[in-house]
Amino acid sequence: MAQRKCPTPGKRGDAMTQTSFQQAFADVKTHLCSLHVAFVQIENPLELYVFEAYAAMELATHEWNTFRTH
Questions:
Q1: 6-17 burial: b if 16+ Cβ within 10 Å, else e
Q2: What is the average per-residue pLDDT within 46-54?
Q3: pLDDT value at position 27?
Q4: Contact 15, 3 (CB under 8 A)
Q5: Phi, psi of 67 (to 5 degrees)
Q6: Rounded CA gap, 58 and 47, in Å?
Q7: What is the signed CA dihedral for 4, 53, 67, 47, rounded to 10 degrees?
Q8: What is the rounded distance in angstroms from the CA atom of residue 38 to the CA atom of residue 54?
Q9: Rounded to the nearest 5 degrees, what angle is found at the Cα of 64, between the Cα atoms of 43 and 20?
């Protein structure tokens, strides 16, 4: 999220050496700390898989959770 506000080349460690990125990172961290969180326990693995994708699309968080396999 900080990269979106202040694009920097290289890895996070490199970006954190730049003052402008440090500020963007701190701003995003403050924003994230202000959010409310809810938990839903889903036992069925298939239902959990489908719910995660649905929630990412419905809450427009798909940019931060791409569901790519490793």
A1: bebeeeeeebee
A2: 92
A3: 97
A4: yes
A5: 60, 25
A6: 16
A7: 150
A8: 15
A9: 145
- How big is the CA angle at 59 (ends 58 and 60), to the nearest 5 degrees? 95
Tokens of 66: 């791409």
With beta carbons less than 8 A apart as the criterion, state whether 8 and 21 touch: yes
Model confidence at 69, in pLDDT bands (50, 70, 90)?
low
Q: Is residue 65 over pLDDT 90?
A: no
The whole-number pLDDT of residue 64 equals 79
* Token pair listed for 18: 């730049």
Least confident of 3-7, 19-23, 52-56, 65-69: 65-69
Instruction: Report whether 59 contacts 48 (CB < 8 A).
Output: no
The rounded distance, in Å, linking the Cα atoms of 56 and 9 is 27
